[in-house]
Amino acid sequence: MKNLLFLSILLLSIGISASAQSKIKVACVGNSITQGPGRDNPDSYPLQMQKILGDKYDVKNFGVSGRTLLKKGDYPFWNEPQFEETKSFAPDILVIKLGTNDSKPQNWKYKVEFTADFIEMIEIFKKSMPKKGKVYICLPVPVFQGNFDINGEVILNEMRPMLLEIAKKTKSEIIDLYTPLLDKSPLLPDGIHPNKEGLGIMAAEVAKAIK
Question: Is the full-model pTM beyond 0.85?
């Protein structure tokens, strides 16, 4: 009887472990728009996306407020613990939404390095991903007010073409987060950061792309 009970527990544990291992791991890298009200806050777009995708997926929020893609930016994502945590997570799917803070004058003066830095980041993350892993690059959400020195014209007219070219060079896919929010300025109260509803739209767009 004891042996039967032990066997049942063992099989259950193996089943739970196998189930956890079989989940599709999604890493969301980004700045404050990804971090949202908090990395563990259910209102953040990654955790709203977790609800949309369901139990087959394991979505992690690696967003850090104020961070740049540029290595020479004022607060590079490269220097954060979340950079290493993303690699350790070994995602099946990587979603990168960086660039908004790079548009600030003190950062965009290094724009000639933006493409190379972005490609290098993708290549580094790919080394920890499975061979069939997928990378998605997000076109940043609209900027309705020039708060925090963020420059919407730079993002739209200079950075956007770079992101499209980076996607081609790295065989990544593009997720357009600009268009779905373009006519929804009330959902970005400070002109930069989407509120819960706006983050929900982002979550739905990213989920649709990666499913």
Answer: yes
Q: Are 106 and 68 in contact (CB under 8 A)?
A: no
Cα separation, 203 vs 206, whole angstroms: 5
Alpha-carbon distance of 191 to 85, in angstroms, equals 30
Q: Determine how β-strand 134-139 pairs with β-strand 173-176.
A: parallel
Kindly state the tokens that stand for 26: 């999604």
In the structure encoding, which two tokens stand for residue 208, read together? 């649709």
User: 3-class DSSP state for residue 130?
Assistant: coil
Task: Name the E strands within the chain.
Answer: 24-30, 57-61, 93-97, 134-139, 173-176
Q: What is the pLDDT along the chain (211 residues), one digit of tens a residue?
A: 555 444 444 444 444 444 456 999 999 999 999 999 999 999 999 999 999 999 999 999 999 999 999 999 999 999 999 999 999 999 999 999 999 999 999 999 999 999 999 999 999 999 999 999 999 999 999 999 989 999 999 999 999 999 999 999 999 999 999 999 999 999 999 999 999 999 999 999 999 999 8
Distinct helix (H) and strand (E) counts, the chain: 9, 5
Hey, is 68 helix, strand or coil? strand
SS3 10: helix
SS3 state at 25: strand
Residue 7 has a CB neighbour count (10 Å cut-off) of 10
**Angle (nearest 5°) at CA 52 between 51 and 58:** 60
Residue keyed to tokens 């767009």: 205
